[in-house]
Amino acid sequence: MFSFLLLFAFNSHAHKSSDSYLTVRVEGTVITGQWDLALGDLEHAIGLDKNSDGEITRDELRNRQQAVASYALSRLHVRVGETPQSLRVTEQLVEEFPDGTYAVLRFAADLRESPRALEIEYRAFFDLDHQHRGLLRLELAGKTQTAIFSPDKPTRLFELATPSRWRQFLDFGGEGVWHIWIGYDHILFLLALLLPSVLRHGKDGWKEIEFFRPALINVLKIVTAFTVAHSITLSLAALKLVQLSSQVVEPAIAGSVILAAANNVRPVFLERSWLIAFGFGLVHGFGFANVLAELGLEKGTLALALVGFNLGVEVGQLGIVAAFVPLAFALRASWFYQKLALRFGSAAIVLLATIWMVERIWRIQLLSL
User: Fold this and answer.
1) Using an 8 Å Cβ cutoff, are 107 and 90 in contact?
2) Which of 16, 137, 260, 291 has its CA 20 to 30 A from that of 212?
3) Backbone angles phi, psi at 117, to 5 degrees
4) Residue 300, SS3?
5) Series of mean pLDDT values for 10-residue runs along the chain (369 residues)
6) How many domains in the chain?
7) Can you give the residue range of the structural domain that contains 249?
8) Which of 193, 266, 268, 195 is nearest to 230 (CA)?
9) Alpha helices in 266-344 (DSSP H)
10) How far is 251 from 232, CA to CA, in rounded Å?
11) 175 within some domain
């Protein structure tokens, strides 16, 4: 357990997940689309910051438009049957999204006939970041399909007449699991809340809980509060009813990790850890929402994606809880758990989250994977 905490402390770098947003529309024999690519991802792939001052200006991006277009078109392929379609860039723009600045490529292709099926192959940034995801919205005759491209699934075949809603649901469910497992800040926040769940604090400090049932009730309160809270803000943000910039959300998430871990070293909320879980779970929900908010899905499709993604997050979260709590209960009376894992581990989490907060506020990188 302690080695697990050290693994996070010395080998992880929490950052906003790398996503791009791809919209493809099929209208008769014409394909049109828009691809939003984060400038940070493009900087790593082809270099945009010519003077290396840490800021990518519009002039620097304009000077690299041809390189951006060449990179994008070399990593996006559309096929009808066995026939590859020739995509051409029709316009390049720059847009500000809540999670940063994006280069916007609009493209088109002409088909010989209206397609029944479309195969899309997406391979942008996978060689640089295994965690990168391409989020697709495919539109045809008022119907919307969604999909998520990953290094393991770079190619998807779409039956345009009968879209599979079940497959879309599973796609976003799997993405929810993935996002909680790679979200080091979310995991450490959860662990900071779970560490004292098998203990009680008194005048003599932390003492073990004698029976498993009270510990399990503590855990259920924490997990339920966190789930309810992040589900609320995830839904509000994905529906675009409430939006917060990632420049606010990401430092706030790091701050929530600091406070949750610090409470283990200097307890303030003794029997009310669920209040911390709920309060800061609201903040974490905005962090999860970035995956869905920019897809611009219609309400029916968005509801399906939202439920699937949220359930995936819960499955990933319950997997962590199921692995952690029995081990914590078995070790709860030991010096190793009470001194090393709880106190030193919590202090390590505070230090790491403080570094994350500095990185996110000042947009610098102090740790790297």
Assistant:
1) yes
2) 260
3) -140, 155
4) helix
5) 46 62 95 96 95 89 96 97 94 86 96 92 95 92 87 93 80 88 86 92 87 91 92 88 85 92 85 84 86 73 87 92 94 93 94 91 70
6) 2
7) 2-14+183-362
8) 193
9) 273-293, 299-331, 335
10) 20
11) no
